[in-house]
Design brief:
oxidoreductase activity (chains A, B); oxidoreductase (chains A, B); homodimer; alpha+beta; Putative NADH dehydrogenase/NAD(P)H nitroreductase SAMN02982931_00703 (chains A, B)
């Protein structure tokens, strides 16, 4: 892993880095879609691992890195998940090659001696429950988004969803731990024939302004 | 905009889509870094707008799309932001070409007739303050992460940070609106010579498991 960054086409000054090519932008953002139906094609563990390895490099507050994931893929795992699912998510989730339970570790600060070795960052959190909750949710959700885009980057499709009982999932998969579920992501090779038309987005002016 | 997705090298069956090339993965994840110092190079509005246009295509709960951004770039804007900054973030933020205030609109549901036209999704939220708060923060933070990666995708560098007074920022920039600040992102062309070594990350086995 490089300790100092210099993009291949960027020497620290001019020429400035070019943007990713159109195919990459399409894959990540413009043509990528939330998939509800997947091809009957297995998902290699190596690709899931690569997506995690990519996502974990993204920035989090104080490098806290609270994201935790359980990849549910066996019949036993799916059966454990099934009672937590809202009816509208049931069939598609049971049929998906893999369902990731994306969560965050409320005791993330116990990893800070490894993650943030240059200061006693653990002490900034311990005893401050509001700050712990904010950081776990905020940085864990940032990492979940990096993970969605990382799945797309390695050629997989994602179907992120709410619509499940967090408490039931936590009881089934995280009992006795400090991990809480955030949301679910069905993963596989999406069946483009089963997509609905894309929903509208806001205009730039509805989202952003300059000051 | 395409209504049905077919990646250029993917016809709905085999061959499966390849992953992005190594240079793209480096740019987005592996070699990208949180920058604290930027080159004295202006940031074109067109690139900021393109990053927003890319980020807005990422998935959110019920397509709620609560992300809102103010790009602070003028002397007047920076002066308005200055009193909100923690001392450790002050000098680098005042020097950054652009600072994005990334927030979420707590009244996001008023846009649902446009964003989710096939059902009265607005009614699912109105009066349910806990669900509104959860959705604004969760989906607004997902979109903030898409935006960080979109900045990198268009060739810019990002320096996301907490360490500011949310209430002061909200008063200075969002008074009389329903928008709340989430975090800040300094934006520009990063000065690679000013980077610290990258902090460690967790091992795959500390993050993820299979069930």
């Amino acid at each position: 892993m490089n300790q100092v960054v210099n993009f291949k086409n960027f020497d620290g000054a001019h020429p400035l880095p070019a943007k990713l090519d159109a195919e990459a932008l399409d894959r990540l953002f413009r043509e990528a879609r939330t998939h509800n139906a997947f091809l009957d094609t297995p998902v290699p563990h190596a690709l899931l691992e690569e997506a995690v390895e990519l996502a974990k490099m993204g920035p989090t507050a104080v490098n806290t890195s609270p994201l935790r994931i359980v990849f549910v893929e066996t019949d036993e795992g799916k059966a454990l998940l099934e009672p937590s699912l809202a009816e509208g998510n049931l069939a598609k989730t049971m049929a998906a090659p893999v369902t990731a339970i994306v969560g965050f570790d409320m005791a993330f600060y116990d990893k800070l001696p490894k993650l943030f070795p240059h200061a006693d960052a653990r002490a900034w959190f311990v005893g401050n429950d509001a700050f712990i909750d904010l950081t776990a949710r905020q940085s864990g959700t940032l990492q979940a988004a990096y993970f969605i885009l990382a799945l797309r980057a390695v050629g997989l499709d994602a179907g992120p969803m709410g619509g499940f009982d967090n408490a039931k999932v936590d009881e089934a998969f995280f009992a006795g731990t400090t991990v809480k579920s955030n949301f679910l992501i069905n993963i596989g090779y999406g069946d483009a024939d089963k997509l609905y038309p894309r929903s509208p987005r806001l205009d730039f002016e509805e989202i952003a302004s300059f000051a």
